[in-house]
Specification:
Blueprint lengths: L7 H14 L8 E6 L2 E8 L2 H12 L6 E8 L9 H13 L9 E6 L2 E8 L2 H11 L7 E8 L8 H12 L1 H5 L1 E6 L2 E8 L2 H12 L6 E8 L2
Parallel strand pairs: 2-3, 5-6, 8-9
Antiparallel strand pairs: 1-2, 4-5, 7-8
Helix pairs in contact: 5-7
Length: about 220
């Protein structure tokens, strides 16, 4: 893959254009600065869902090396909900989500900030739990404190992660170092995009017995 080279001013223009292009985002109140390929986002938003969407949009832009999110949520009066309403809505969303284990996740809401806790078997389950609630009206933020249930880590888990990476992108797998320390996986190396970085992290989380993934992969855009 050819490395994409952009000046900071070019990258800033591309990020701003991508934000304006996405219909789910109102980029009017979002400030963008770029230094050495690192994008900093500032401003105020009316919903938490929009904050999450903005991060994903910026990750789509080629040559973005890292993102600093300094956005805060200031709810529009029409989006405000009581903590009780939010808690009830979150519990219902989790209960109706097929990939979230029933009765294993607890919900707490304080001043619009939702905290999820409990214990599940796999990382995808706690990821899906956050997805189930992050678009609720009235949220100002979400904390994911869901723990993973301890499992026995197979002796060949490092090789299994490498095999999974190779199935997705053999060339990228050769540039990724996988280090295992008990139930902790550390990924190091360089990839060419945020999508590849996310895929590598997902492959590590899919290994049995892993409770923590430290993703130190650099995006060499």
């Amino acid at each position: 893959m050819t490395t994409i080279v952009k000046t900071d001013s070019q990258l800033k223009k591309d990020v701003e254009s991508e934000l304006e292009w996405d219909p789910s985002i109102d980029a009017t109140h979002v400030g963008v600065t770029v230094r050495d390929g690192v994008v900093t986002l500032t401003g105020h938003l009316e919903t938490y869902a929009e904050k999450f969407a903005i991060e994903r949009v910026v990750q789509r832009v080629a040559a973005v090396r890292a993102i600093a999110v300094e956005l805060d949520v200031r709810l529009d009066p029409g989006h405000r909900r009581s903590d009780g309403e939010l808690a009830a809505a979150a519990e219902a969303a989790l209960r109706w989500h097929a990939l979230v284990p029933e009765d294993r996740i607890k919900v707490k809401v304080e001043k619009g900030w939702l905290t999820l806790s409990g214990e599940v078997d796999w990382d995808y389950q706690r990821t899906q739990a956050v997805k189930a609630v992050r678009t609720l009206t009235g949220l100002v933020g979400v904390s994911n404190n869901i723990a993973l249930k301890p499992q026995v880590t197979p002796a060949n888990v490092s090789q299994r992660i490498h095999d999974a990476l190779a199935r997705q992108a053999e060339r990228e797998a050769r540039n990724i170092e996988v280090r295992i320390d008990g139930p902790v996986v550390t990924l190091r190396g360089k990839v060419h995009s945020w999508a590849e970085r996310s895929a590598a992290q997902g492959a590590a989380w899919s290994a049995p017995g892993i409770t923590t993934v430290v993703n130190r992969l650099e995006v060499d855009a």
